Amino acid sequence: MTENKNVLPVEQREELLKVLQARFEKNMNRHEGLEWAKVEVKLNATPEKLWSLNEMEVTGGEPDVVGYDKEKDEYIFCDCSKESPKGRRSLCYDLEALEARKKHKPENNAIDVAAAIGIELLTEEQYRELQQLGDFDMKSSSWVQTPSDIRELGGALFCDYRFGHVFVYHNGADSYYAARGFRGSLRV
Q: How far is CA 122 from the centre of its chain?
């Protein structure tokens, strides 16, 4: 039997479900009106999504349900760690930026790490919506999806939360900092 690398062993899956349920129940303000039992049914039906959520968890993202898309019948998970996930920091924006660096290259880039995990970087709009659910990135910052016209000129966008407001900034896509990572979203 060939083992699928993107499927968690039963014990690990059960442990992750306990962690996700505890977080879900502790933070009902993030998903008012939603029931864990229905979320769990969806998760158990999509083992590859559970694997992605586990990757979000082990990299420090603390994923939680932040919404439900009735039209598509999908729950929306997002990294809800207070600061940008520690296991996904010190990354430039994308592969093009990584390859353009001549010296002191970071280990990887946000776009490829997100793809490997099976998630997407938040958009600026999603980042702003997340901030309605709590105060995130008060000491760190997070890369967000960048419009192609900005990216074509070598730039990339990131956000943080200071002074009670979301701020959107630009930087060279090849930059990377210990306090900048990325937050992801996953639909289940």
A: 7
Q: Of the candidates 58, 79, 100, which is a domain's last residue?
A: 79
Closest listed residue to residue 184, CA positions, set 115, 119, 96, 104? 119
Residues 136 and 61 in one domain: no
Compute mean pLDDT per 10 residues along the chain, 188 residues long, and list them.
72 97 98 97 96 98 98 98 98 97 94 98 98 97 98 98 97 96 98
Runs of H (alpha helix) within the chain: 10-26, 36-45, 47-58, 95-100, 110-117, 124-131, 148-152
Q: Is residue 119 part of a domain?
A: yes
In angstroms, the CA 114 to CA 93 distance is 11
* Domain-embedded: residue 64: yes
Any domain includes 187: no
pLDDT at 5: 78
Residue of 114, 93, 109, 106 whose CA lies nearest to 183: 114
What domain range includes position 161?
Answer: 86-182
